[in-house]
Automatic annotation (TrEMBL):
Protein name: VOC family protein
Domain VOC: 6-134
CDD domains the record matches: VOC (cd06587)
Pfam family name, one: Glyoxalase_6
Gene3D superfamilies for the chain: 2,3-Dihydroxybiphenyl 1,2-Dioxygenase, domain 1
Amino acid sequence: MTAIATFALVALDCPDPAALARFYSDITGWEIDREPPDGPPLEYEDGEQSDWVQLRAPGGGATIAFQQVEDYRPPEWPGAEHPQQAHLDFDVPDLDAAEERLLAIGARKHEFQPGKTFRVYLDPVGHPFCLVLS
């Protein structure tokens, strides 16, 4: 079957795209792309921040982008009143070592942990994501 399209990225809504891009850059080691294709630079001449920032994945593969949303409201997980809609998983060889590093860069461990081979965290603006034992 011939593909219709190529998956390019997942975009996360947030109040400050540059700050959340730095957080996920620290997790993945990917560089922040300061001039997304067909988009504005990270900062405008008047000092205003761009409303879109994305990471540059090695080899140009699919990546993560961050989109500014006014009056951003974080998801509440678990629950259905304001659901997460989507989440990211990151494979790690050592959950404890990875957790220590995550907490140091601003992640919060969620109080509800439903499994033994993965852990749920919240990024600085409340998006749930998981570390998964690889």
